[in-house]
Structures are given as structure tokens and as C-alpha cells.
Specification:
Structural class: mainly alpha
Number of strands: 0
Distance between the termini: 21 Å
Helix content: 55-70%
Order of helices and strands: HHH
Number of domains: 1
Length: 48
Amino acid sequence: MEEAREAYAQMMRGYPGLTASRFRQAMVFSPAALDRMVDNLKKLGLPD
């Protein structure tokens, strides 16, 4: 979990305005994969 927190912090430094909806628009994955990714990013603090 610590590694995930560090990676999330780094991602947010590079993309400070990132939200779950923007993430979904930018990524090209299946809806199920996007749901899993967004759920986990939200656990780390990604806003909607």
C-alpha cells in the first residue's frame, strides 16, 4: 500500500487537476478495468 501511495502522490504532482472522470476519459481500457482502477485510485484519494 505504501508503494501505491507514493505512486499516487507522484501522479498527482504531474497531474494536479486529475479527477476520476478525467482519468476515465484519458485511459483506453475496458469498462471493467477502468472501474477497478478508479476504485483503487479513489481509495488513495482521487476526487470524482
